[in-house]
Amino acid sequence: MSNAYDKYLSEWMKVAETEWFKDHVAAVQIADDPTSKLRLQIVDWRNTSGSSTYFVRYILQGPWLIVVGDLGEAVFQWSEVISPKFLAGLNFHYWLGKCQASDEGRKPVHFDRAQGMRELKEWFDGENEGDYSTESWNAISSFVENSPAHDKYELQSEVSDAIYDTTGDAELCSMIHGFFFPPTTQIIGTFVGMQMAMKQIMPKG
Fold first, then answer.
1. Which of 25, 29, 161, 172 is 20 to 30 A away from residue 150, measured at CA?
2. Alpha-carbon gap, residue 107 to 93, rounded angstroms
3. In whole angstroms, what is the distance from residue 136 CA to residue 124 CA?
4. 117 shares its domain with 105
5. Are residues 144 and 156 in the same domain?
6. CA dihedral (147, 152, 157, 162) positive or negative
């Protein structure tokens, strides 16, 4: 991952932790038979004021995690039964890779022009190692900055076409395309809230 990507992710994680969820508490609404392989737990993550702003409900059942609330909906699946302790210790990218469905599809990403340009510029200035010229950078950046596309699907297609037309490298095209589609801020917040909530309800000591 690039420095620009790491910065994007860490900044939004900090926003979620220190702004969105600074006054949130977790409450277990349902916890059935702990010996059941399909044990159901419903964990509400809510502001202490009772406000529904940034409210998230985490539903754990067997190998499934279902998320609903103010940040959107998503479904995750593992091969084994999950627990609050398991979820509290996950890495973001591993967790994200288990997403089966969300408001944005199986990959909860969104088009972010500014973030994509930051990552592209970092790549051209560093890992590119002179393989592609300033003209290539200018061609891609000019297209992205001036694209008339109005929705993310149209943009995905146009950005991919522009990168491939400039580089002729399908693998590189895929990598650069990813620069412009980072995880949504909502899914980042969902992860942060999940870890905070699960840590709160785990037995102490």
1. 172
2. 11
3. 9
4. no
5. yes
6. positive
Q: Encoding tokens for residue 28?
A: 């277990």
Which 3-state string (H, E, C) describes the chain?
CCHHHHHHHHHHHHHHHHHHCCCEEEEEEEECCCCCCCCEEEEEEEECCCCCCCCEEEEEECCEEEEEECCCCEEEECCCCCCHHHHHCCCHHHHHCCEEEECCCCCCECCCHHHHHHHHHHHHHCCCCCCCCHHHHHHHHHHHHHCCCCCHHHHHHHHHHHHHHHHCCHHHHHHHHHHCCCECHHHHHHHHHHHHHHHHHCCCC
pLDDT in tens, 60-109: 999 999 999 999 999 999 999 999 999 999 999 999 999 999 999 999 99
When divided into structural domains, the chain yields a total of 2
Q: Which residues pair with 28 in a beta bridge?
A: 43
Give yes or no: residues 11 and 96 share one domain: yes
Looking at residue 36, its amino acid is S
**Rounded (10°) CA dihedral 171, 177, 179, 185:** -130
What's the whole-model pTM score?
0.84
**Range(s) of the domain holding residue 167:** 113-179
Task: Give every strand in the sheet of 64-69, ordered side by side.
Answer: 24-31, 40-47, 56-61, 64-69, 74-77, 99-102
- Cα–Cα dist 53/69, whole Å: 9
**Domain identity same for 96 and 28:** yes
| Residue 18 and residue 67 in one domain | yes
